[in-house]
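chain below, 204 aa
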Amino acid sequence: VLVVPGDAVAVGQVLVRLDARDTTAKLDQAQAARAAAEAVALRASKDAARTEQLFAEKAATPQQLDQARAGLDAARAAVAGAARAVDEARVFSGETQSRAPFAGVVSERRVDPGALAAPGVPLLVVLDPQHLRVEATVAEDVARDVVVGRSASVEIDGEPAPLPVTVDEIVPAADPRTRTVIVKAALPAGARVRPGTFARLVLA
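prediction:
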């Protein structure tokens, strides 16, 4: 695990490396199988060429020619299958590194070296402080007049003035218990706000 909470990371930066011995071994096996298939295909190609020449000289039967051509087709198909196996093994081998999907800051580290990684289980949490959104619960009767694109403002403790925002998403379903609707708006870039900060969405 190459980062800790608070580290700034660049897009594509390696954050976690998984043990690659198993995937590396499978890639080596797939490459060896492809090399063997290519050798068989090369021999089949030469055999087919010789049989073609013998058939032209009437020294080979049509059955022998058909067998030689069938053997070449089968060898070429085996090469194609082996190549696909190599590509698949290479993809798995490339997935042994977890990279940052965007530039941001590590907010959580959920694994330590030696831990077992499993599909669907987060290893790290990375946030982008330049692209935050405010989510507000708005009463149903007020939400009826709110539309995407409407201007609003956000009040945040510590900010000297309200921040101008534009509503960019309205959850279509209301909460039947609280009779509220969630309204979302992107905060302007450069706002000095931490994720999770309490904010008030002001709809004039």
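Helices lie at 21-56, 62-94, 140-143. The CA atoms of residues 10 and 103 lie 4 Å apart.
thats it, cya
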